[in-house]
Amino acid sequence: MSEQAPNGGAVPAQQPSGPQFSVEKIYVKDVSFESPKAPHVFNEQNAPQINMNLNQRVQRLGESVYEVVLGVTLTCTAGEGEGNSVYMVEVQQAGVFGLAGFEPNVTDALLGTQCPNVLYPYARQLIGDLIQAGGFAPFLLQPINFDALYAEGLRQRQAQGAGNGDLANSETAGNA
């Protein structure tokens, strides 16, 4: 039931005040799964080695709207030498986020920590599903401390003289 003003009209909705963080859209931007040695790889007994690479891109779409793309590449190898790839999964999980009313350094921190924290569970689920659909045992990626990754990236940008370390139009990468 809506509220009524004393004169019988509806009370206008209050506009939120202060800083606003919103998730506008979450989507898969790109995905790839490769298992070049299937079906022969299913008979091999070598211990698999997993390597994960993370990267993040941020693009400003409007005054207070940003696209954040979290890239996760997972490579599984077994044995020595050439052609030892068991599978490779690449996922670019993206989201459009609204960030209004924040100081630039807070916006930068939110883009580098909160946004990937929102996106990572989606990428993690998709990667697990792809690996299982590829005929391999279920694999669950461990949680990632994006706060620590952001802090390290900020230290590196400041050491390189990047000024305030603005992430709003940049790309960061790292191994996890």
UniProtKB/TrEMBL annotation:
Domain of life: Bacteria
InterPro entries: SecB, SecB-like_sf
Subcellular location, record wording: Cytoplasm
This protein's UniProt keywords: Chaperone, Cytoplasm, Protein transport, Translocation, Transport
Annotated Gene3D superfamilies: SecB-like (3.10.420.10)
PANTHER family, per the entry: PROTEIN-EXPORT PROTEIN SECB, PTHR36918
Role, per record: One of the proteins required for the normal export of preproteins out of the cell cytoplasm. It is a molecular chaperone that binds to a subset of precursor proteins, maintaining them in a translocation-competent state. It also specifically binds to its receptor SecA.
Subunit text: Homotetramer, a dimer of dimers. One homotetramer interacts with 1 SecA dimer.
Assigned protein family: Belongs to the SecB family.
HAMAP family: SecB
Protein name from the UniProt record: Protein-export protein SecB
Organism expressing this protein natively: Luteimonas rhizosphaericola
